[in-house]
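Inverse folding, one chain.
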């Protein structure tokens, strides 16, 4: 059988099932699959076959079972055979899994030998991918190899009836890893005492770097305003939301409003950060997520995290603890003790370290839910390296992804193996993380790609990296084509579809910056059938950081002149405005763009919401937060030309009239979102008329906007379209590599 069947308690499960049915034979892990031979009574063999899938452990993902009948070999008993070192085919390394309920009970039971032990785990839970050095996944190939098991742990490990039977990271306070609390220079407490001290220090308002599963977090008390502000200052992060960790679902429900789907994903085995609507009286410092109606929240997923919320006698547990990645701005998350002590020195007051090595970094994953289903925005810990079944066989390909939120993708057989979130590929550290992870994944999955896909942008580090590889065939893939192909691949679509790709920036084939694109495409080619009519982007990157520049561009485009009393210019010094205006009028240092992200920026500035951003997507996010529910009427716009151009000048004029009339920004934002949804529906209708296509794929970072995604999806469906959004793979550039890979494989 094939699937995720290693390191998830599958062999013990097979063993116990076979023994309970009186069958003999063996179970064996190879790098390709699990091989089982059973012999015995015919009925018992049949029951074995049924229960093999129906009763499989929670973590197992069985993709294929291949069966054949053999001559009886006369086995005397059932045994678990040693892993065979077959180095040819695909093996699946399991992702890291949150502490299970049984282990959590051991943690809080004073009579248990693992009472308050921060590294307890079993076959149903614990570290996997982040500690694995090589395959097959066995203790000697993990970072637990440095901890020989004590007699008690060894006997659990060897006892098929025990929950820890063949749990590779099995450990206890006698033989396993331990924690130490350091100040910036030296250890100040160890083991049990270290945790208690760390909790006390958090309570006093200190910032502590805590070593977790896939890297370090920076933690502070989320109810302590001064501590949260200080963390912002030190991390040089002005407004970008921090994630928080809470004790359990009950605590989560006190801070945020939870749906059933959100409860399920919050408390499930993957434990991502879930973005949730926050209650007005949440008790969490407003500095955790300024100007935001939501909070990114997660539950504890390691024993160490659980212990942060298990107060000793007489203490109230924390309402919530900020847990933000241990890095400075966009560098990779710190993973090693010495690395944390140097790189996070100025950020943290204390360091809660441990001596189980993190072999592979993995950030927390991020999820939203929509219509009761999960939508993954950052696919990392808990998912990676679980492959995505593509439903068709592909040649081996490497796709290098984009620049922001970068990931790469390898294909093998009918699987796509997507890397964890690597980060923004703008500095040497991130590039190094990319290369290390790529080497590891190629080794784990025995992939040697001869074909390499990359973005068309010549200056992306991912493009340069692809170009530096020797002896490979390079395939450049247009950014928005890759977005749509990614959406098609995860939805198992083939043939032609209508692709709506809305995002901030993607390199176009005509030298313009694309980002409001309507394609007709399949995996091999695309046709650009419509786009947002070009406007000028003044000053390149500066225009991305300063939405008022885009407001100016849209105003000049719609009115031919600007009136300086409008909101964007009240806060911009007149000489700067005149300077940018001159740039726009003369066409100097401007690029043409159809970017949807920049359209959101322009509107956010026009209504006086935000003129300068300090993190990617901030203006669009705050604009989404403003848009209230309820049906708004859209603004007017025009469609003309071939390819079709979406002319938004009338919208700009009507929107400015609303601003002048004093219409609330909430109402304007709602009308604007409605307009974008109307544009999508009308363009799709035109394409349907001409091509007879009715399947629509929605991709690009703009579709992280739930107000827009909901409006677009329901309007299209009402109109008879079949709509395919992303679910398992991010709609943002984190999903780009998957699309590049399937396009390169198809060519
Ligand atoms: Zn467990
Ligand atoms: Zn032990």
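Residues assigned per position:
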């Amino acid at each position: 059988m094939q699937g995720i069947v290693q390191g998830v308690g599958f062999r013990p499960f097979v063993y116990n099932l076979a023994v309970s049915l009186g069958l003999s034979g063996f179970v064996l892990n190879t790098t390709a699959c699990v091989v089982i031979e059973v012999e015995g009574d015919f009925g018992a063999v049949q029951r074995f076959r049924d229960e093999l899938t129906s009763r499989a452990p929670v973590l197992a993902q069985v993709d294929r079972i291949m069966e054949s009948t053999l001559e009886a070999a006369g086995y005397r008993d059932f045994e678990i055979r040693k892993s065979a070192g077959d180095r040819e085919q695909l093996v699946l390394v399991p992702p890291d899994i949150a502490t299970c309920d049984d282990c959590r009970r051991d943690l809080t039971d004073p009579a248990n030998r693992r009472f308050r032990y921060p590294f307890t785990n079993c076959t149903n839970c614990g570290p996997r991918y982040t500690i694995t050095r090589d395959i097959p996944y066995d203790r000697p190939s993990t970072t637990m190899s440095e901890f020989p098991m004590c007699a008690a742990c060894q006997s659990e490990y060897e006892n098929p009836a025990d929950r820890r039977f063949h749990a590779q990271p099995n450990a206890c306070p006698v033989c396993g890893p331990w924690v130490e609390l350091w100040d910036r220079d030296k250890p100040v407490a160890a083991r049990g005492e270290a945790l208690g001290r760390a909790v006390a220090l958090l309570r006093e308002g200190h910032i502590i770097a805590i070593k977790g599963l896939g890297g370090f977090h920076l933690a502070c008390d989320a109810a302590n305003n001064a501590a949260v502000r200080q963390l912002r200052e030190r991390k040089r992060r002005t407004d970008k939301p921090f994630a928080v960790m809470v004790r359990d679902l009950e605590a989560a429900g006190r801070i945020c409003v939870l749906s059933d789907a959100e409860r399920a994903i919050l408390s499930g085995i993957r434990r991502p950060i879930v973005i949730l609507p926050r209650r007005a009286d949440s008790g969490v410092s407003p500095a955790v997520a300024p100007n935001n109606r939501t909070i990114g929240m997660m539950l504890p997923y390691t024993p160490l995290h659980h212990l942060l919320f298990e107060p000793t006698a007489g203490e109230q547990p924390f309402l919530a603890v900020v847990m933000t990645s241990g890095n400075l701005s966009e560098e990779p998350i710190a993973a090693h003790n010495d690395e944390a002590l140097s790189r996070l020195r100025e950020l943290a007051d204390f360091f809660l370290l441990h001596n189980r090595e993190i072999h592979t970094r993995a950030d927390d994953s991020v999820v939203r839910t929509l219509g009761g289903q999960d939508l993954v925005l950052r696919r990392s810990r808990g998912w990676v390296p679980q492959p995505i079944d593509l439903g068709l066989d592909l040649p081996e390909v490497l796709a290098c992804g984009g620049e922001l939120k970068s990931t790469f993708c390898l294909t093998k057989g009918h699987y796509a193996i997507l890397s964890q979130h690597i980060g923004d590929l703008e500095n040497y550290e991130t590039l190094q993380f990319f290369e290390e992870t790529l080497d590891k994944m190629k080794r784990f999955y025995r992939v040697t790609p001869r074909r390499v896909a990359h973005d068309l942008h010549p200056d992306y580090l991912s493009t340069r990296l692809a170009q530096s590889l020797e002896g490979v065939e390079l395939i450049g893939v247009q950014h928005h084509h890759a977005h749509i192909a990614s959406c098609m691949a995860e939805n198992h679509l083939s043939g032609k579809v209508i692709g709506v790709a809305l995002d901030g920036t993607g390199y176009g084939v005509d030298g313009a910056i694309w980002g409001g694109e309507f394609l007709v495409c399949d995996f091999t080619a695309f046709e650009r059938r419509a786009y947002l009519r070009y406007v000028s982007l003044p000053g390149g990157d500066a225009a991305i950081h300063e939405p008022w520049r885009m407001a100016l561009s849209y105003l000049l485009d719609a009115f031919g002149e600007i009136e300086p009393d409008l909101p964007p210019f009240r806060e911009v010094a007149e000489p700067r405005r005149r300077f940018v205006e001159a740039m726009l009028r003369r066409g100097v240092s401007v690029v043409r763009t159809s970017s949807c992200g920049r359209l959101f920026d322009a509107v956010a500035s026009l209504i006086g919401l935000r003129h300068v951003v300090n993190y990617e997507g901030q203006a669009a996010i705050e604009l989404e937060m403003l848009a209230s529910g309820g049906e708004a009427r859209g603004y007017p716009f025009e469609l003309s030309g071939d390819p079709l151009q979406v002319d938004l000048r009338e919208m700009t004029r009507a929107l400015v009239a609303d601003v002048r009339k004093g219409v609330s920004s909430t109402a304007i934002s709602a009308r604007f979102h409605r307009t974008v949804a109307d544009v999508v529906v009308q363009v799709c209708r035109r394409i349907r008329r001409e091509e007879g296509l009715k399947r629509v794929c929605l991709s690009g970072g703009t579709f992280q906007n739930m107000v827009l995604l909901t409006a677009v999806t329901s309007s299209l469906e009402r109109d008879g379209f079949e709509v395919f959004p992303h679910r398992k793979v991010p709609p943002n550039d984190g999903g780009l590599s998957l699309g590049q890979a399937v396009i390169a494989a198809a060519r």
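The first helix runs from residue 10 to 20. The longest strand covers residues 497-507.
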